[in-house]
Amino acid sequence: IHSFIHSFIHSFIHSFIHSFIHSFIHSFIHSFIHSFIHSFIHSFIHSFIHSFIHSFM
Questions:
Q1: How far is 16 from 24, CA to CA, in rounded Å?
Q2: Spatial distance between the Cα atoms of 50 and 57, rounded to a whole number of angstroms
Q3: Which of 35, 38, 41, 56 has the fewest CB atoms within 10 Å, measured from its CB?
Q4: What is the pLDDT of residues 2-56, one digit of tens each?
Q5: Which domain of life is it from (predicted)?
Q6: pTM strictly above 0.85
Q7: Based on the number of CB atoms within 10 Å of its own CB, is 45 exposed (0-12), middle (13-18) or buried (19 or more)?
Q8: What single DSSP character describes residue 57?
Q9: What's the rounded Cα separation, in Å, for the pair 53 and 43?
Q10: Predicted pLDDT at 56
C-alpha cells in the first residue's frame, strides 16, 4: 500500500506539472500571438492612413 501511495503521488505530481506547463505555454503563445496580431494591424492601419494623407496633401 505504501508503494502504491508513493507511485500515485509521484505520477500525480508529474502529470500535474506536465499539464500545468502545457497550459501555461499554450496561454503564453496565445496571448503572444494575439498581441502580435494586434500590433501588426495597428501599425498597418496607422501607416496606411499616414501614407494616404501624405500623398494627398
A1: 12
A2: 11
A3: 56
A4: 899 999 999 999 999 999 999 999 999 999 999 999 999 999 999 999 999 988 8
A5: Eukaryota
A6: no
A7: exposed
A8: -
A9: 15
A10: 87
* Cell 502504491 found at: 4
In the numeric block, the cell 505520477 is attached to: 11
Q: Quick one: cell of 39?
A: 500590433
Cell readout for 43 is 501599425
User: Residue 36 is placed in which grid cell?
Assistant: 502580435
Which triple of cell numbers denotes residue 57? Answer: 496633401
C-alpha cell read off for 18:
506536465
